[in-house]
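Human: Not sure, check this?
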Amino acid sequence: MLQSLLAGVESDARKGQLRRALRNKRCLRVLEAHSPLSALVAEHAAIQDDARGERVIYDALWSSSLTDSTLLGKPDIEMINIRNRVSNFNDIFEVTTTPLIVDGDTGGKVEHFVINVRSLERIGVSAVIIEDKIGLKKNSLLGTDVYQQQDSIANFCHKIRSGKAAQVGDDFMIIARIESLILDAGMDDALERAAAYVDAGADGIMIHSRSKTPGEVLQFAEQFRTAFPDVTLVCVPTSYAATHFSQLEDAGFNIVIYANHMLRSAYVAMQKVASEILRCGRTLEIEPYCTKIDEILDLIPGTR
């Protein structure tokens, strides 16, 4: 019985789910999951939107290199690579059916990226997003406060082409993340790179920004959509957090990733509980912050 409860989705079927979802919806909601438990929470989350007459869910999961590194107490400098993270992807796949998009950092050396593409495709990952930076990777939201260097267009296009050539099937997606706005290289540079990356075979473009307002990503979307009406467009509104999903959808984005909020919120809750047990000398006061044991027993298959 436990085996049937844990049955997920066969890898070939799973990796094609993202493309199918993109064909069926204008824009997908994607939530960060750093563990099987957080993935289960994301998969079960749902609300009823009476105004639109639909059930709203997360259409895919996001495996963030930032949260995966933080969970292990390591810096977000590409120290925890794809090979180190594959077992976590498999653990998530054992208990969920939702497609997974992987944060691939810079993709690393071309030769390594080729092997990682094959590994991710084989286990059923739907997409990998790689950013056009080189050298020691630093978190993009640090911007120009730290030294970060963008790759050349030619080199990054070679990496995209190599990754696409390594694929066995057509379902797996390689999405190119553009850091031009993060590094103050300008809109023209971002658009030039987008065109080159699409020409190199990228299945989608992610435009990143550390601005507190969405103006520059909306401008990029408008100009990109004029040139490429059918190419998947992705954004991560971490810094421009006041921007509503519907505004990004109307601007032409196909995927909106909420990239680190599950781990960040868990950290706040754990800090609160840990300090309150010390302060109160018992656990009664922190029970309102804790999931009921019965909910845990119902959430995890085979626990009862």
Summary: The first strand starts at residue 28 and ends at 32. Residues 1-7 have pLDDT under 50 and may be disordered. The radius of gyration is 20 Å. The chain has two domains: 2-259, 262-304.
